[in-house]
Write a structure and sequence with these properties.
With 695 residues, this protein is an alpha/beta fold. It contains 16 helices and 16 strands. The strands form 4 sheets. A 6-stranded mixed beta sheet has the order 5-4-3-13-15-16, with no helix packed on it. It has a 6-stranded mixed beta sheet with strand order 6-7-8-9-12-10, with helices on both faces. The chain has a two-stranded antiparallel sheet with strand order 1-2. The protein is globular. The relative contact order is 0.12. GO terms for molecular function: endopolyphosphatase activity; exopolyphosphatase activity; phosphoric diester hydrolase activity. It is a single-pass type II membrane protein. Catalyzes the hydrolysis of inorganic polyphosphate (polyP) chains of many hundreds of phosphate residues into shorter lengths.
Length: 695
């Protein structure tokens, strides 16, 4: 039976016969490219650049999913009777029905296929091991990943009849860059150093995505890169399993024996190779570099080195993107958190243990509150400036008067200089950012994200062949520790600091990189899309169905014929057009500025003042709109509040000033509440968000 199943899978995937390398893309106008491969010339068509790419993550397809099954923990949408809809059970812990995957890929085909330049796909393409009656096995994990490769081929494959030729490089129209997820292996979370069964197997499963010149390297550890715009932009796929603190098979990134160390050495050498060639890089992986007391996903030694790499290669790295978390948000890496030893190229393998359990939707509010607290401690710009609105020798004229102009000018300049020093300069080079996308699996609502990036200045008439892209830089990692395997017992008795090579920083004369200053390849914005399954499934009409709370809802019988509405993704928000975020672009000063606004949150005063407006009332509300006023408190609260104010303020003028402050305080809180509503992809109402996170 097993052999029969594998034969069927092989027959299914044989038609994919995917390429060893990605099809290069260029600027406007499709033009033929003559490529020599294996002694034969081939003619290919280039594609115009659109300045957009797609990020999808965490599909978690589940072939055992049953419509109208129970969402209870002991059923997992596999049996029983309950509210599991045809396209998924939103806000539950159930995985994705195949119907959701099919509809999602069909929507991408119809709406995005011819509008994007490449796809980053950050892992978890198999179901969770969440049903004791249906434990996962190797065939299921690989079969689901093969299934997702097939779906990618259905959307982005060329289908030109040459799928079985000796050169399958024609089969995909745009580059697709996948990453290992912690559920793409068995047992989940645990991967040993390579080469291992999983890296060898995925070298086959992803053979169309991994450049031939990097196949051997991929088998060593599961990492690779693709030059999605040859000689201009490379996307790196990192294996975050070797950074994860809950991977019991590895031990951080301090010693050269560890695959995490080896991956970072490979990354260092390749990023230097990109710098030498003038190529920029996007970093992708599954598990984000979350580092908090409330939650930490990476081993501290890996985080330290990775953050150092981000700082040293800030002229090369455009952005970094992750999945796994299921919540929509972003992180800041603060380079002031780098240890002194790390900056000096030394690291102990004996790090404090960090909590690294699997991250799903049941995340403690402590994580979000700690994130807000961290951002509340960010330096705040003085009133005399905005980070990018003035040059170093300019002062806001509003800060000066005829009398004392010189003194005020000096004070304002001193304040600006102090602030800029705290921020790492006017481009906020003290920080880097990580974008964390919500998932397709409907633990909230299914989501996907489209980024726009700057393609000005690129040679739109240039054509690229495979010969134009040099092979990766050679990497030879030696065990440079003073110890050897025979000294293991001795090492356990005393801390050992291991030396490593510190990456070179940007030249002092270098301009800020695309992550910091608007330029070619800088990210301009992203549009977050979501599918409102409550509306689409069309099974329930109550707005109370939140967080998987299905009590009180009478499910349909199993023989009921679903009557869903048309499946579609719609815009949740756009970072540039959004009335709250209003980000000119996604460079670091603007992202840090948003974090500063979120961190300014202050709890509403007692008595009900400062109640958050409902999302439906926010279309014309902006952070700087002085005409905005808070919603009215309840009658009882208003009386109590009025009495308190009379005791504190007898003067009517002071009373009015206090009302104004209350309204401003609520405007001040709007970025935080908006950030949290979007973290949960709109599955929590404004009132629910304020109740849970308004303190």
């Amino acid at each position: 039976m097993r052999q029969s199943w594998l034969f069927g899978l092989a027959a299914c995937t044989a038609v994919l016969a995917a390429p060893h390398d990605q099809v290069p893309i260029v600027g406007e106008g499709e033009r033929p490219i003559n490529i020599v491969s294996g002694g034969r010339a081939h003619t290919k068509k280039s594609r115009p650049l659109h300045g957009r790419f797609l990020h999808v993550t965490d599909f978690h397809p589940d072939r055992f999913y049953q419509v109208y099954a129970s969402t209870a923990q002991d059923a997992a949408c596999h049996r029983g009777q309950g509210p599991a809809g045809i396209y998924g059970a939103e806000t539950s812990e159930c995985d994705s029905p195949v119907a959701l995957v099919n509809q999602t890929m069909q929507w991408i085909h119809d709406e995005l296929k011819n509008k994007i330049d490449f796809v980053i796909w950050t892992g978890d393409s198999a179901r969770h091991d969440n049903d004791e009656e249906k434990p996962r096995n190797t065939e299921q994990v690989l079969g689901l990943n093969e299934f997702m490769v097939q779906k990618m081929f259905e959307v982005f494959g060329k289908h030109n009849g040459d799928e079985d030729d000796e050169d399958p490089n024609n089969d995909f129209i745009i580059p697709i860059v996948p990453s290992f997820g912690n559920n793409d292996i068995l047992p989940h979370n645990v991967m040993t150093r390579g080469p291992n069964t999983w890296t060898r197997t995925y070298a086959r499963v992803w053979r169309q995505f991994i450049p031939e010149a990097q196949k051997h390297q991929f088998e060593q550890g599961g990492w690779f890169f693709v030059e999605v715009i040859p000689n201009k932009l490379a996307v790196f796929s990192l294996n975050s399993l070797f950074f994860a603190s809950n991977n019991a098979a590895v031990d951080g990134c301090a010693t050269s024996r560890e695959p995490g160390y080896q991956q970072l050495e490979w990354l260092r050498i390749q990023l230097q190779f990109m710098r030498d060639r003038g190529v920029k890089a996007i970093l992708t992986a599954h598990q984000p570099p979350i580092r908090q007391d409330a939650k930490s996903l990476w081993d501290e030694t890996c985080w330290q080195k990775y953050a150092l790499w981000l700082r040293q290669y800030r002229d090369v790295i455009v952005s970094s993107h992750y999945g796994h978390f299921n919540f929509d948000h972003f992180l800041l890496q603060d380079f002031e958190d780098l240890d002194k030893d790390t900056k000096n190229g030394r690291m102990s393998s004996l790090q404090d243990e960090q909590g690294g359990h699997d991250f799903e939707t049941a995340v403690s509010s402590d994580y979000w509150l700690e994130l807000r607290e961290q951002w509340s401690e960010l330096p705040q710009p003085p009133k005399s400036m905005k980070l990018l609105d003035v040059e170093d020798d300019e002062v806001d004229e509003n800060t000066t008067t005829k009398k004392g102009r010189s003194d005020k000018k000096k004070r304002a300049k001193k304040e600006r200089q102090k602030y800029l020093k705290q921020m790492g300069g006017r481009y906020a080079e003290r920080f880097s950012a990580s974008f964390v996308s919500a998932s397709v699996v409907p633990n909230l609502f299914p989501t996907l994200r489209v980024f726009e990036y700057n393609i000005s200045g690129l040679d739109i008439h240039q054509t690229f062949g495979l010969a134009d892209v040099p092979p990766p830089a050679h990497v030879s990692i030696l065990d440079d520790d003073d110890d050897d395997d025979d000294d293991t017992e001795a090492l356990k008795k005393r801390p050992q600091k291991h030396k490593f090579t510190i990456p070179h920083p940007p030249l002092a004369s270098s301009d800020p990189g695309p992550a910091y200053s608007p330029q070619t390849l800088s990210l301009l914005k992203y549009t977050q899309y979501f599918a409102n399954l409550t509306h689409i499934n069309n099974d329930f009409h109550s707005s109370k169905w939140r967080e998987g709370k299905h009590s009180g809802q009478k499910p349909h019988n199993k023989d009921h014929e679903p009557q869903p509405k048309k499946f579609k993704f719609e815009v949740l928000y756009d970072t540039r057009e959004d009335e709250v975020y209003k980000l000119k672009d996604l460079t670091m000063p603007n992202l840090v500025g948003l974090a500063q606004r979120i961190g300014k949150f202050k709890p509403a005063a007692a008595g009900g003042s400062g109640v958050l407006v409902e999302a439906s009332q926010r279309s014309n509300v902006t952070v700087n709109d002085d005409s905005w006023t808070a919603a009215a408190p309840s009658a009882a609260a208003a009386v109590a509040d009025s009495q308190a104010r009379k005791k504190e303020k007898k003067d009517r003028h002071d009373h009015e000033k206090k009302k104004d402050k209350s309204a401003k305080r609520t405007r001040r809180n709007l970025p935080w509440y908006t950030f949290m509503e979007r973290a949960f992809v709109g599955t929590k109402s404004a009132v629910e968000v304020q109740e849970e996170f308004g303190y």
